[in-house]
C-alpha cells in the first residue's frame, strides 16, 4: 500500500485480507499494488480515519456465537478501528508483557445496542494479545430489551454496519 508492504492474512481467487499499514495517511487516496509471481495489478482506493466492521456469522450475529442476558458482559471483535494508542507496529500484536490497561485501543469508541441505539457500557477495549489489527470490545448489554437486537460500533463518529446479539431475560 503506497509502496509499504502490507501484512497478508487471507487469499482467495476473489479476496485479499490485508492490514493497511498504520503509516498510510487517512482521508487520502492510496494505491494497493499486488505482485503475484511477476503479475502486477494495482488499485487505488480512498482511505479514511476508520472503517469499523464487526465480525459476524452468516446471519449477521456477532461472532461470539452467543446469547447474552440483560446486564451481562459480552464480547465482539472488529477490524478497521483506525489509529490506536499507544502506537503499535504494522503487522504486530501486543506483547504478552503488556499490562491489560495498556493494550493499544482506538479512542472515542461507543457501542450502541437496540433500536433505540442505547449506549452500552464498555468494560474493555483493545487489541488483544496474539491478534493483529483486530479490536476486542467487552460491553454490558443494556437492560430493558430482549430478542434479536442490533449492535453498532462507532469509532470517532464512523459507524459500523449493523450486527446483532440475541438478548435473553
Q: How would you characterize this protein structure?
A:
This protein is mainly beta. 0% of the residues lie in helices and 44% in strands. The chain contains no helices and 13 strands. Strands 5, 6, 7, 8, 9, 10, 11, 12 and 13 form a nine-stranded mixed sheet that branches. A two-stranded antiparallel ribbon has the order 1-2. A two-stranded antiparallel sheet has the order 3-4. β11 and β12 form a beta hairpin.
Oligomer: single chain
Low-confidence stretches: none
Number of strands: 13
Described by strand count, sense and barrel closure, the largest sheet is: 9 strands, mixed
- The SSE order reads EEEEEEEEEEEEE
How far do the termini sit from each other? 47 Å
**Beta fraction of the residues?**
35-45%
Give the integer mean of the pLDDT values: 94
Please state the CA-atom Rg, rounded to the nearest Å: 17 Å
With helices defined by DSSP (H or I, 4 residues minimum), what is the helix count? 0
Q: Approximately how much helix is present in the residues? A: under 10%
Give me the secondary-structure category: mainly beta
Shape: globular
Amino acid at each position: 500500500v503506497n509502496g509499504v508492504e502490507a501484512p497478508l492474512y487471507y487469499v482467495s481467487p476473489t479476496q485479499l485480507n490485508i492490514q493497511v499499514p498504520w503509516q498510510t495517511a487517512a482521508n487520502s487516496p492510496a494505491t494497493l499494488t499486488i505482485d503475484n509471481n511477476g503479475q502486477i495489478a494495482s488499485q487505488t482506493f480512498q482511505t479514511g480515519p476508520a472503517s469499523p466492521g464487526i465480525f459476524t456469522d452468516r446471519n449477521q450475529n456477532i461472532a461470539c456465537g452467543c446469547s447474552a442476558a440483560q446486564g451481562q458482559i459480552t464480547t465482539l471483535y472488529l477490524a478497521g478501528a483506525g489509529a490506536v494508542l499507544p502506537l503499535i507496529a504494522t503487522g504486530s500484536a501486543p506483547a504478552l508483557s503488556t499490562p491489560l490497561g495498556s493494550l493499544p485501543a482506538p479512542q472515542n469508541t461507543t457501542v450502541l445496542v437496540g433500536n433505540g441505539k442505547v449506549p452500552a457500557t464498555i468494560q474493555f477495549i483493545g487489541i488483544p494479545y496474539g491478534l493483529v489489527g483486530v479490536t476486542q470490545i467487552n460491553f454490558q448489554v443494556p437492560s430493558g430489551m430482549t430478542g434479536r437486537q442490533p449492535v453498532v460500533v462507532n469509532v470517532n463518529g464512523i459507524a459500523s454496519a449493523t450486527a446483532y446479539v440475541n438478548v435473553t431475560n
